Amino acid sequence: MAAEQDPEGRAAARPLLTDLYQATMALGYWRAGRARDAAEFELFFRRCPFGGAFALAAGLRDCVRFLRAFRLRDADVQFLASVLPPDTDPAFFEHLRSLDCSEVTVRALPEGCLAFPGVPLLQVSGPLLVVQLLETPLLCLVSYASLVATNAARLRLIAGPEKRLLEMGLRRAQGPDGGLTASTYSYLGGFDSSSNVLAGQLRGVPVAGTLAHSFVTSFSGSEVPPDPMLAPAAGEGPGVDLAAKAQVWLEHVCAHLGLGVQEPHPGERAAFVAYALAFPRAFQGLLDSYSVRRSGLPNFLAVALALGELGYRAVGVRLDSGDLLQQAQEIRKVFRAAAAQFQVPWLESVPIAVSNNIDEEALARLAQEGSEVNVIGIGTSVVTCPQQPSLGCVYKLVAVGGQPRMKLTEDPEKQTLPGSKAAFRLLGSDGSLLMDVLQLAEEPAPQAGQELRVWPPGAQEPCTVRPAQVEPLLRLCLQQGQLCEPLPSLAESRALVQLSLSQLSPEHRRLQSPAQYQVVLSERLQALVNSLCAGASP
C-alpha cells in the first residue's frame, strides 16, 4: 500500500519500533499456518491516570499515518533475519516483505473524546500475524499522547477558561519524539500554544515565545544599534531614535517610581530597545534578569512608553522567579498608577506572563480569584507527567476466527473481556454522562428512552437504566486499509475535548477524590464472561 503523502511521512513510528517478541510470534504464527487467521485486538487502559476519573483518547492521527505507511523495507527484513534463528525458512522473510495494512480495519474513539477504563481506544482487526506486529507501535503512539493530553486537560481545568497556557517543555521532554508529542497533545488537551517550532510546522500548533535571560544579559549598555530609528506605527512621519526616546522616558518613570535614574541596569534597557526595534508590534519585557522593581520594571516602562508615543503597544511582561503571584499584583499596581500618571490607559491591561517550574499546586495559586497573572508557561509538569509517567495501555486479543478469546489470570484486574464488541455512551435528559456500556457487536444497540439491564463491575446482580440519549463511541476509521472519512483537524479535536469535559459531572470532573465513572457490561457480554470463566475452572 502506498504511503500517505504527508510531510510527517513515517516520522511518527516505523515498523521496527517494536518489541522483538512480536517478530518471534509472527514467525510462530507463520510456521503454524495461522498468519492469515482473522483476529481482533483491543487497545485500552485499566485505570484512569493521576488519580482522576477520566482520560482523553489521543494519538489516532499518528496511528493512521503509521498504518497507512506500514511496510517492511529490505533493511528491516534483513535486520530481522539477523536476530531470528539462522535456520529460519527464507519464505518467511519473503512473506514479511509482502506485508502492509491493506486488510486491516480499525475502529476508534474519536481523538479528544473522553475515555474510561476498559473501553477500547482502538479495535484493530485483520490477519493475525499483521495485527500482532502492530501491538507495540500502536501502544507507543496512543499511550503517551493520551496521557499528556489528559495531563494538559487537568491543568486547563485548574487554570480555568480565562488564563492563557503556554507549553514550553521541549527542553525537558524525553527526547525529540516525546517533545513533539507533548507539544501536539498538550494543545489538544487545552493549552493555547507551544514554544515548539516543529510542532507548529508539522502539526499546526500555535507557537509563541519572546526572549530569554541570555538575550538580556548579553547587553552591557554600551552597544550602539546599527539603526536606532523607528518609524511611527501609522507609517507616516519621520523615524525616531528609540534608545534616546526611551532614555527620556526613563527619567520620568524613575521620578514616578522614586528611583534614581542610574538604578535601572543599562544593559537590560539596551536589550529591551534592541528587542523593541526588532519587534515593535510585539514587544515584551523579561523583568527579572536583575531586579524586577529597581531595574526590569522601570526599563520596560521606559521602552514601552517610548513605543507608545509612536503608536505601538507593548504586548506583555514575563516573570521567571520569585513569588510570581505577589509580584504580578505589585506590577499590575504599578501599571495602573503609571497609566494614570502618563495618561496611557492601555498600560493598565498589559498582560503579565509567568513561568518557573509550575505544577498543579502552583497553578491553582496563580489561577485564584484576584490573581493578576494572564499567561502561564508550563514545561516539566506537562511534558513529563510527573504524577504518573505512564498510562498503562494494553493491547489484548479478543477474537480469532470469529470466536471469542479471553485472558484468564490469577489477577482479576488483568482478565480481559472476550469477543468483538460495541461501546455506547448513555446520557441523561440534561446531556450529562451517565455511564458507558460495552456489549457484543452483534447485539442491537441501546435505544434512547428504553430500559436497559446492565452489569456494573463486580456486581452480584444487574441494574436498570433508561438513557435519554445514546451515543455510539467507536467510529470506523480504517476499513481494509482505506481511510473511511477525513480525520478532524487538531483544532477540531481540541474543541471536542472542551465539549466532552463540559458534559462530565462535577463529581467526575474534580481532580481530587473524584467519583468513579461507571463502565458496565450488557447482559449477554456478562453471560459470555461467566461462561468462559466457568469453562476454564478445573
From TrEMBL:
Compartmental location: Cytoplasm, Cytosol
Alphabetical list of Gene3D superfamilies matching this protein: Aldolase class I, nicotinate phosphoribosyltransferase
Family annotation (InterPro entries): Aldolase_TIM (IPR013785), NAPRTase_C (IPR041619), NAPRTase_N (IPR040727), Nic_PRibTrfase-Fam (IPR007229), Nic_PRibTrfase_pncB (IPR006405), Nicotinate_pribotase-like_C (IPR036068)
Keyword check for Protein biosynthesis: no
Domain called Nicotinate phosphoribosyltransferase N-terminal: residue spans: 16-143
Catalytic activity as recorded in UniProt: 5-phospho-alpha-D-ribose 1-diphosphate + nicotinate + ATP + H2O = nicotinate beta-D-ribonucleotide + ADP + phosphate + diphosphate
Superkingdom of origin: Eukaryota
Annotated Gene Ontology cellular component terms: cytosol
Involved pathway(s): Cofactor biosynthesis; NAD(+) biosynthesis; nicotinate D-ribonucleotide from nicotinate: step 1/1
Coiled coil: none
Occurrences of domain Nicotinate phosphoribosyltransferase C-terminal (ranges): 421-528
EC number, as in UniProt: 6.3.4.21
Keywords: Cytoplasm, Ligase, Magnesium, Manganese, Metal-binding, Phosphoprotein, Pyridine nucleotide biosynthesis, Transferase
CDD domains the UniProt entry points to: NAPRTase_A
Coarse class of the protein's main subcellular location: cytoplasm
GO molecular function: metal ion binding; nicotinate phosphoribosyltransferase activity; transferase activity
PTM (free text): Transiently phosphorylated on a His residue during the reaction cycle. Phosphorylation strongly increases the affinity for substrates and increases the rate of nicotinate D-ribonucleotide production. Dephosphorylation regenerates the low-affinity form of the enzyme, leading to product release.
GO term, biological process aspect, one: response to oxidative stress
Family that this chain belongs to: Belongs to the NAPRTase family.
Function, in words: Catalyzes the first step in the biosynthesis of NAD from nicotinic acid, the ATP-dependent synthesis of beta-nicotinate D-ribonucleotide from nicotinate and 5-phospho-D-ribose 1-phosphate. Helps prevent cellular oxidative stress via its role in NAD biosynthesis.
Quaternary structure (record): Homodimer.
Protein name: Nicotinate phosphoribosyltransferase
Species in which this protein is naturally found: Cercocebus atys (Sooty mangabey)
